[in-house]
Amino acid sequence: MSDAVIKCENVYKIFGANAQKMLQESNGNVDAKTFQENGCIVGVNNASFEVSKGEMLVVMGLSGSGKSTLLRCISRLTDATGGKIYIEGQDLLKLNNKELIDLRRNKMGMVFQSFALLPHKTVVENIAFPLQIKGIEIEDSISKAMDMVKLVGLEGRENYFPRELSGGQQQRVGIARSLAVEPDIWFLDEPFSALDPLIRKEMQDEFLRLQEKLQKTIMFITHDFDEALKLADRIAIMKDGVIEQLDTPANIVLNPATEYVRKFTEEVPREKVLLIEDVMDKSDTKDLSDLKVSKDETIENVAEKILSQDKSVAVIDNNNKIVGSINPTKIINTVFGGRKNN
Amino acid sequence: MEFLKKYPKTFQWLFLLIVFFALCFAIEVPETYKFIRGQAEFVKDPNQSFYVFLGKEVRYYPFDVFWRLPPLLGWLPIWINDSLFFLMNEWLPMEFWNEDTQSYKTRPLVLQITREVTSIMTFLIELIRDILLGGLKTIVAFTSWDFVGSNSWAKMPGLPWTIVAAGAAILAYKLSGKGLALFAGLVMVYISIFGQWKPSMQTLSFILVAAPLSFVFGLGLGIAAFKNKRVEKALYPILLVMQTMPQYAVLVPALVLFGVGDHAAVIITMIVAVPPMILLTLLGLRAVPPEVIEAGRMSGCNNLQLMFKVLIPTARRDILIGVNQVIMVCFSMAVISAFIGAKGLGFNLLLALNQLNIGLALEAGLCISLIAILLDKMSLAWANKQVDYFGNLTFFERNKNAYYFGIAVVIGIVLAYLGSFYFKEGYNYLFEVPHNKGISTADFWNKGVDWIFDTFFVYIKAFNTWLIVEVLQPMRALYLRMPAVATLVLVVGAGYLIGGIRSALVVCGLTLFIALSPWWDRALVTTYMATFGVIVSCMIGFTVGTLCFQNKHSANFMLGVCDIFQTFPSFVYLIPVMMLFGITDTSVLIAVIVYATIPATRYTIEGLRSVPVALHDAATMSGVNKFQRLTKIEFPLAFPHMMLGLNQTIVFALFMVIIGAFIGTEDLGQYILKALSDKNGAGIGLTLGICVAFIGLIFDNLIRTWVDNRKKHLGIA
Questions:
Q1: Which of the residues in chain B have pLDDT under 50?
Q2: Domain membership flag for residue B446
Q3: Which residues of A touch B391 (CB under 8 A)?
Q4: Chosen domain end from B89, B118, B149
Q5: Is residue A129 predicted with pLDDT exceeding 80?
Q6: Same domain, yes or no, for B200 and B78?
Q7: Is B289 part of the contact surface with chain A (CB cutoff 8 Å)?
């Protein structure tokens, strides 16, 4: 058994009356157009991937690309039309209702774009809600929820109602609620899309801090490519239900698999995204200048130093060992090359 | 030709009207035709034809089918009657244990069920009456008369009025604040010192039973419809018909099933009050954002937890608006069900109206309106009240209102006890002011009415005569002159032009049902009265609404007035018009106009308000003046919503026309009222009710379809 926490094999989600039948007849070759002519809409088209423990997979796509549908298939808020989904080795689609509820009560947490807080409960009651549903005593659930309130930095507001909070604060409650049962798997469906840009950045940083601490297995949905680059271990880019490319942020920026993906990468400030490690030359470690840079630096931070040198610069790892080199022209090529009209 | 190409719809409408009028003139009035008055239909006449269907003989006057269709549905009321009779008296006899005679007795199942339901209702009503007014019936129901005779403590007096008044004020304070608390206190004091305490509490006890039961059933069915598409589909046509069904019509079948009295009134009220509750429950549950439901699911809710911990609390506001609707319907029915013997203010009101004692009627009407307004405001305050947080309050703070009420109870009892010493002879006014011992203004009002009559008799009479002779009679004659086929062509054509073939078929079916019933002529009279009312109401309503909209304060004021007027039980409108115009068609029509102007005004203001602010700004920046803005921007955009107002106006007008039968009209309503005192009336009453409902639904279908299309066209759907 692999250590994949989430594993999808050829997952399809097709909406429409005779979706099941049409999928069987198509033998896995789903063409969105012919399906649409027959009154079916393809949400997710042949998605296969794995998410391993502690990894953050960001699914990025524009609206209507099927990213939210994919997430809902994996959380089984909707049933996939075809394919197999395994959660920690368990076949998700074979679970009965009781087992599914059990799984959700103990293993899964989810954050929603519109926060989806219960309007009649206070902050702390909202957070304690999944615990109480599980059957935990009110006293215990409230004290557990108070820990969560502290975790997301809402002390002093625990007795507010959602209507009295700002968007960012409401989403903190949403995050706290999804973490209350200490799930292993964390689903986030465009959690920051409804927030103002400044608050969004603050929440992203907060989220990274939390993840460092908690090390959950995460599926994060977004339509914001910059957000995906900032947060992801790996990114899956979706279009019309198909996963166009699934790779690390650096690889996607450097080697976009399709024209569609390339369009996203065009505007990306590479110097901010790429690390020295991603662009260094591993084989050439001779005739270097005296300057040494760490492989984990972003290009942005060290470009000026490197460009001041005539010769290639040594790249070192954490143990001060030289693992490669980087030439100033490489920096210039990476930052300015391979863009529009090239 | 250019014109026709540009406005094809206009041409089609013109064509339809030409066909309609051509048919009207082409089809001659048969010489033997006359509007049949009174009970003439039931007289056997050798000129009548008859046919037999399902063993029921239907007699009718035959005419050319183009003029009047034969009453092919004439067997339906008789069949309904026979079926009801069969169900009640013959179907499935079973053995039932009888507690009183200690023996088994054979009874048909349905009869037994209705008797069981009846006894439960009676018990509930009596329980509350015993609390509010004192009495033994509840205790007797559990024990026996002997027990009460030997235990003097069992003879509990009712609550002194001071306690009920204090309780109402405290509840109002908790729900809204000082203003409403003051109003609640004043209403209760008014009721008491004007000697209306007993009938008011009888009415209140009726409502306290009917409203919660309607709420429970409405909520339950609403949930069922939300969870199951099939239930919704089954309920939908019933809900639709019930929305336009006159409340009189429900009285008759219920009379057959449940007999006469308060319990039957509760059941009828439930039949009328449950549909709006179902609709609002459904509306509220549908409006819960899908993400909230998903959040509930991801929190691990099972279906039950999802419904009661997530869906219903989130839909709380709509559901409580439903409660408000239920209460309003209950008040309306509190009066109407007096026809089948419900006690209370409604009964007094009806009695006074029957005796033409306008003063007494006014007092009873005022009382019932005041209680209605109070409960309306309280339930709305409850709906809009945000949930309170109690977590960090002490036990006393959490329950302080309960303490205050406890204190009020003690003070009330002490006062009543002291009062029994003070008012040595006669009545203890601190306990209850008896019905005929309060202050009465009836004489004053009656004298006022007499004075108005003496002073303005000539003018009122002249107006009355002019209206009837110059406007109403010709209009009525015109409506009756319409051949059945021409009417059918007009209605179906309109349906086709507005909503295509589907709409045409629906209105065709509805119209045919009325045309094939024995009461087509009566339906035409109902339509004529409703049309007259609607035209005048719309003119007044649209004008007043538009004028009030010009100023924010006057608009709010007008909406408030509409709210209050809408709270009055519909019967109350008959009092002032009878005061002024006596027992004539004019009275009914004026009541119709006043009642139907409410939705016309309200929807005009709301429609104009719904025009987006951005459009206002855009128009202002284009340099329009106020009048241009009104005609070019606001009216076109508000028009769909105003048409919904027209729809409501028609429903309200039909409603009042039917209630107006109490004064004396010659339409469907008159027959429904007659059916009430007819032992074979159930089928007739129900069929007539459906006819009225269908008139409403024809307009409803046409207007709604038009509005939907228009909104789509304007992009404001």
A1: 38-40
A2: no
A3: 122, 159
A4: B89
A5: yes
A6: no
A7: yes
Q: Domain A271-336 is in which class?
A: alpha beta
Give yes or no: residues B431 and B539 share one domain: no
Percent of chain A predicted with pLDDT > 90? 38
A104 and B297: CB-CB below 8 Å? yes
Give the residue from B89, B108, B134 where a domain finishes: B89
Q: DSSP assignment of B260-319, as one string?
A: SSHHHHHHHHHHHHHHHHHHHHHHHHHTS-HHHHHHHHHTT--HHHIIIIIIHHHTHHHH
Give the residue extent of every domain in chain A. 54-69+97-107+183-268, 271-336
For chain B, say whether A156 makes contact (Cβ under 8 Å).
no
Best mutation target among B298, B312, B316 (most A Cβ atoms within 10 Å) is B298
Contact between A77 and B297 using a beta-carbon 8 Å cutoff: yes
B229 to B232, B236, B362: CA distances (angstroms): 5, 10, 47
- With an 8 Å Cβ cutoff, are A178 and B298 in contact? yes
- Structural domain span for residue B648: 522-714
Is the same domain home to B346 and B435?
A: yes
- The C-alpha of A318 sits at a distance from chain B's nearest C-alpha, in angstroms, of 42
Partner-chain contact A114 B289, CB within 8 Å: yes
Confidence check: pLDDT of A340 > 50: no
Any domain includes B515: no
Domain count, chain B: 3
- In which residue are the tokens 């709210």 written? B563
Q: What is the predicted pLDDT for the residue at B141?
A: 65
Instruction: Give the pLDDT confidence score for residue A342 in this predicted structure.
Output: 42
Residues A112, B295: C-beta atoms closer than 8 Å: yes
Answer whether residue A177 shows pLDDT above 80: yes
B336 with B248: CB under 8 angstroms? Answer: yes
How far is it, in rounded angstroms, from Cα B481 to Cα B483? 6
Distance from CA of B320 to the nearest CA of A (A): 14
Helix B681-714 vs helix B75-89: crossing angle, to nearest 10: 120
* pLDDT bracket for residue A1 (50, 70, 90): very low
Residue B56's pLDDT is what? 75
CB contact under 8 A, B389 and A161: yes
Q: How far apart are CA A256 and CA A39, in angstroms?
A: 33
Distance (Å) from the alpha carbon of B576 to chain A's nearest alpha carbon: 45
pLDDT score, position B699: 92
The β-bridge relationship of strands A4-15 and A41-52 is antiparallel
Complex confidence, ipTM: 0.85
Residues B39 and B186 in one domain: no
How do residues A63-105 score in pLDDT, each as one tens digit?
889 999 999 999 999 999 988 999 998 899 899 999 999 999 9
Residue B110, min C-alpha distance to chain A (Å): 41
Q: A54-69+97-107+183-268, what's its fold?
A: Rossmann fold (3.40.50)
* Rounded distance between C-alpha atoms, residue B440 and residue B361, angstroms: 12
